[in-house]
Amino acid sequence: MSNWEILWSARDQFWSGFLSTMEIFGLSVSAAFVIGCGMLYLLEGSRPRLTVPLRVFIDGMRMLPFLILAYLLYYGLPAFDIRLDAWWSGVGALAVYHGCYFAEIFRGARLTFPPGQVEAAKAHGFTKGKMFFRLILPQIVMQTRPLLGNQLIYALKDTAFLVIITVRELTAAANSLSGTYFIPTEAFIVVIGFYWAVSVVMEIIIKQCGRFSAKRGFDHV
Amino acid sequence: MNASAWQMLLEGAWTTVWISGVSIALGVTAGLILALIRIARIPVVDQILVLYISLARATPLVTLALFIFLSAPTFGLNLDRNVAGILALTLNTTAFNAEIWRSAFRNFSREQREAAMAAGMTPWVTFRRIMLPQMMITSLPGLINEMSFLIKGSPAIAVIGIVDLTRVTNRISAVTYEPLPPILVACALYMAAIGCLVWLQRLAERRANRLAT
After folding, report:
1. Is there a contact between B63 and A161 if contact means CB atoms under 8 Å apart?
2. Residue A67: partners with Cβ closer than 8 Å, 6 or more residues away
3. pLDDT band at A106 (very low <50, low <70, confident <90, very high)
4. Which of A215-219, B61-65, B168-172 reaches the highest mean pLDDT?
5. Is the residue at A131 inside a domain?
6. Using a CB-CB distance cutoff of 8 angstroms, which residues of chain B are in contact with residue A164?
7. How high is the pLDDT of residue B213?
């Protein structure tokens, strides 16, 4: 049997690893998006006592490698009697870490947001929450989509770190297969192909979003 | 944490620093060379480089490091762990650096190139004397940003058994049974290193802006 045939017979392992990676990725990126939006909303508020610690937290996260945060949740939290298993600490770390990056991207776009719109919305009697969800958030998300797309690719790449804290995902599948059959080259080429395909698909989706947002006039405000 | 734990942490930090340093130096140079090759637009080579850059940007560092370290023996190469780690980090960062250099090259002012041509400079002299010094200043902020990304990605080399600043916390907690203190110290060290780079990036940005005006 050639090496590729061995891999084909082990396709179930690749597939389950891929699904597990996509599950981790999807869940944590959605959570990160919500966290990012929440942080933007809190920064929006006129509570300077909250703004300063939040910005310190965001900047602190951006100065840490992702793996050390996963270590902190997986190995560090049991000191406080909070035990998360590897999967949940991985997803949690990804969500918090990339949530901070999302928040920073949104904050950068919020700085250049035209103040006239906010004033007009206030004059029309929008409440703060409605103004945020109907005016500010959609425009900021559409404007920052290339940066968000980049960040999504970084998030996908960061899921591979979780193999170090023993999460079973795509890279772990390749690692165990290459250990069982001694065919590391082919196994890893397949896995790299998977990652590549996912990021190419994400880039295409982001481009399609660009077409949508040009049609809706998000780009020329 | 006792004295030997501190010493181990510092050794781990040193491993991270030297491996990242070597990869940064190699990656910045190789990125410049790749950018120049791409600008020359050699038919087949250009497509291969586009494919390489696209692949290298999408491949996780952990996967790349494992791939290089595990598959090198099947090609009859016996790579040292450190060499495999440096190779993985370099392959990754080169792709990003090539794009940074290329955009600096493409945004270079046309007037200056025409002026250099009118003054009778050969392309090589124009590049060396006129373009490269200015390109270095304009692309420095981007390059430093990529350096901080490389340091944030460097814990990936732990997967092939290099004891870097992240991995060393496991070693220490295996002795002390207290994982939290070494991880917090490692956090602080990473923050110090990346904070330095962020500060340098701001300085470089100020210089680049002065050149632009």
Report:
1. no
2. A161, A164, B155, B156, B158, B166
3. very high
4. B61-65
5. yes
6. 62, 155, 158-159
7. 62
Find the CATH number of the domain harbouring A184.
Answer: 1.10.3720.10
Inspect the interface and report whether the beta carbons of A71 and B180 lie closer than 8 Å.
Answer: no
Please report whether residue A221 resides in a domain. Answer: no
| C-alpha distance from B19 to closest chain A C-alpha (Å) | 16
Convert the pLDDT of each residue in A119-149 to its tens digit.
999 899 998 888 888 888 988 888 888 888 8
What's the pLDDT at B89? 93
pLDDT per position as a tens digit, B73-108: 888 888 888 899 999 999 999 999 999 999 988 888
Domain count, chain A: 1
One-character DSSP codes across A102-161: HHHHHHHHHHTS-HHHHHHHHHTT--HHHHIIIIIHHHHHHHTHHHHHHHHHHHHHHHGG
Chain A touched by B93 (CB under 8 Å): no
Spatial contact of A139 and A221, defined as CB atoms under 8 Å apart: yes
B151 and chain A: CB distance < 8 Å anywhere? yes
pLDDT at res. B33: 92
Per-residue confidence (pLDDT) for residue A3, from 0 to 100 = 77
* Beta carbons within 8 Å of B211's beta carbon, 6+ residues apart: B134, B137, B138
The Cα of A115 is separated from the nearest Cα of chain B by a number of Å equal to 26
User: CB of B145 within 8 Å of any CB in chain A?
Assistant: no
Structural domain boundaries enclosing A155: 3-215
Nearest-CA distance A204 → chain B (Å): 13
> DSSP 3-state assignment of B182?
helix
Q: Could you give all domains of chain B from N- to C-terminal order, each with its CATH number?
A: 3-212 (1.10.3720.10)
Residues in chain A: 221
